């Protein structure tokens, strides 16, 4: 049986992964804050959506 912290950690990763697919900059901001990683993801998302999703998933997972 998994401990509650492990279950919560897995739930957070799953939720962040789902957010990363639909709103990549939000997922990166929730994980990293408003750092350079967020701004890079925002630019990637604005240029073309798919690179933003890939970058967000790499950051989140």
In helices, the fraction of residues equals: over 70%
Distance between the termini: 23 Å
- Residue ranges: pLDDT <50 for 5 or more in a row? none
Structural class: mainly alpha
Major sheet details: none
Mean pLDDT: 89
Strand content: under 5%
SSE series: HHHH
Tally of individual helices: 4
Radius of gyration: 12 Å
Shape: globular
Strand segment tally:
0
Summary tags:
61 residues, mainly alpha, 4 helices, 85% helix
Structure description:
It comes from Haloferula sargassicola. The protein has 61 residues and is an all-alpha fold. The protein has a domain at 24-61. The chain is 85% helix and 0% strand. The chain has 4 helices and no strands. The two termini are 23 Å apart. The relative contact order is 0.18.
Describe what is shown at a glance:
This protein has 61 residues and is mostly helical. The chain contains four helices and no strands.
Describe the secondary structure blueprint for this structure.
Blueprint: H1 4-22, H2 24-32, H3 36-47, H4 49-60
Helix pairs in contact: 1-2, 1-4, 2-3, 2-4, 3-4
């Amino acid at each position: 049986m998994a401990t509650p912290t492990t279950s919560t950690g897995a739930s957070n990763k799953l939720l962040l992964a789902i957010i990363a697919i639909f709103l990549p900059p939000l997922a990166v901001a929730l994980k990293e804050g408003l750092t350079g990683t967020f701004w890079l993801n925002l630019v990637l998302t604005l240029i073309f959506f798919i690179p933003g999703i890939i970058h967000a998933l790499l950051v989140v997972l």
